[in-house]
Amino acid sequence: MAVTTAHTPGSKKKRSKRRALTLNDVTLVEKSTLKRTILGTSLGNAMEWFDMGVYAYLAAIIGVVFFPGSSPGIQMMASFGAFAAAFLARPIGGLVLGPLGDKLGRQKVLAFTMVLMSVSSFCIGLIPSYDTIGIWAPILLLCLRLLQGFSTGGEFGGAMTFLAEHAPDRIRGFLTSWLEFGTFIGYIAAALIATLVQQFLSEADLYSWGWRIPFFIAGPLGLIGIYMRLRLEETPAFEQTEDDEEAQKAQESATQGLTTMVSGHWRPLLLCMGLVLVYMATNYMVLAYMPSYLSEVVGHSASHGLWLLIAVMAVMIIIQPFMGLATDRFGRRPVIFSGCLGFLIFSIPCFMMLHSDSIAVIFAGLMIMGAFQTCFTASMASTLPALFPTAIRYGAIAVALNISTSLFGGTTPLFSTWLVDTFGNDMLPAYYMMITAVIGMVMILITAESARKPLMGSTPAALDKQEAKEVLAEHHDDIESQIEDIDEQMEALAKQRKDLVEQHPRID
Fold it and tell me: Distance (Å, rounded) from C-alpha 260 to C-alpha 255?
C-alpha cells in the first residue's frame, strides 16, 4: 500500500516511488462477483466438510467394520486414530498446495482440492470390510484418509484467503463469516444423513452396507462443488501482485520452502498457530467429538446425540452472520477474546449439563459451547488472512493452520477419548478446552486489530464509489494521524537532544 513515510537517512530513493493514494487506487468489488464468490466458496467448503463430518459421525460404526474383535473403547480409539491420521497429511498438503496457490492462483488450487476430496471420500465407500479382505481394509481406509487430509491442507486456508481478498474492508468480517456457514451446512448434512441411515436401517444392514451411503453421496456433491469453484474469478489482491515486482519476488521466495517463509514471518506464523489452536480444538470438541461423548461416555443412543448436535448447529448458523457483523463493528479481538473467556468459565458447567437426564439441559449445555464457538467461526476467516502479505498469504496460512490443526484440532477426539478411557474422568475434556482457551486469550491480546482495514499488501477495497471516497478519507486521516505522531516524537527527541547538549556541550 502506498503511504507517506517519515524521512530517514537513505530512504530518499524509496520515497520517490511512493505517492498518496487516489480514488483510482481503491478496489471496487462488484456485488454480483461478490455474491458468486460467497456462494461458490461456502458451498465448496460445505462439500469439503460434509466429507470430513460423515467419517466423524460414523466413527463408532467404522470402528466395528474395520477394527473388529476389539473392545468398544479400543474400536473408538482406532477409528478416531484413522480420523486423526488425516491431519498428519494436512501440513504436507499445506506445504505443497499453499505455495502453489500463491504462485498459480487461488481459484485453480481450490478447484483441485475439491476434486481430490470428492474422489477420496467416494472411494472410502468402496472399501471392503475387514471380514472380506482382512488387514487391507484398515490400510486402504488409512490411505484414503491421508488423501483427504492432503486435500484439506490446501482447502480451508485457501478458501479463507480467497474470500477475505474479495471482501471490501468495512464488511470483511460479515462476508467471511459465511465461509463457516458452509462448514455448518456440511456438518449438518453429514450428521443428518448419518442419523437417518442409523435410524431407518437394521443393525445388520447398517454394518453391512448402510454406512457406505453417505460416502457415495460425496461423489455427486463433489461435482456440484467443482462446478461452483470453476466459475469463480481470481481475487483482485492476487491479480495486483502480477504487476508488482517485489510481490513476485516474495512469491518466488515463498515457493522455495518453509525455511524461507518462517525466517521473515515467524511472529505472524506463531500468532496464527496459537489462534488456530483454540479455534480448532474447541471446534472438533463441539462439532465432532460430542456425539461420540454422548453415546459412548454418557450412555445416550448414537442418533440421540446427533439430533441434538444438528439442532445446535442450526442455531449456530443463525448466530454466525450477526457475530460476523460484530467483528466489523467492535473488532476481531474483543469477539475472539469473549469466546476464549466463555470456554474458560463455562466448559466444566457445560460438561456437567451433558450428564443430565433432561434433554433440555443437555441441549443447553451443547448450545452454550456452540454459541461461544461462533466467536471463533465468525472471526478467524477475517483475522488470519490479515496477518500476512498477499504474496505469501495462501501458503503461510495453509502451513500455520494445518500444523496447528493437526497437532491440536484433529487429535482432539482421539485425545479426549484416551483421557476418559485411561483416567476414567469424564470431565478431563472440559479441562483440555479450558487450557486451549487460556492460550487463545494470550494470542489474541498480542495480535493487532485488523477490522475495517485493508489486508496487508493490498490497496483499500469498497463496494461502490461513495464508500471508496469514505474509505480513502479514513485512510488519509489515519496516515495524517501517524505523521502527526511521528512529528511529535521527533520534536520530543529534538528537545531531549537539546537538553543533553546543554548539559554536556562536548556531545555537539
Answer: 9
